[in-house]
Amino acid sequence: MGVIRNAAKALIFRDGCLLAMRMRDEDGDFFILPGGGQEPGETLVDAVRRECAEDIGADVAVHELCHIRERVAEEPHRVEFTFRCTLLTEPGVGTLPDDGQVGLTWLPLAQLAHARFYPLGLRPLLGGAIPNGDPIYLGDLP
Description:
By secondary structure, the protein is mostly beta strands. The protein is built from two helices and nine strands. A hairpin with a 5-residue loop joins strand 5 (60-71) and strand 6 (77-87).
């Protein structure tokens, strides 16, 4: 039986923009949400706080759960929980940045559809109105 790995991600908005980690690979720059794997004994809220400190060097207040996304084809099977967060301190250099991370950027939501932003399936949701209310189960979304 395969392992299931949980991850906690942060949606941080300011002035019509989304805070994203700027990553680099052989094809150039791309953008992802701050966050990462949940550790044993850690709540998802604690995981997103820790990951934000590591990835973006900021303390955050964690608010509502916005999205649940699965990646069934990946090994291990991943389930990502994305929370709306607000900054308590300004972002900067993280304490343990991800491999390939080259900085941070505020991506304008109006331009998100044209950015190399992952996961691709979130672009249509984030490029327009931000969902309010009940969490959205997105399924096995690329």
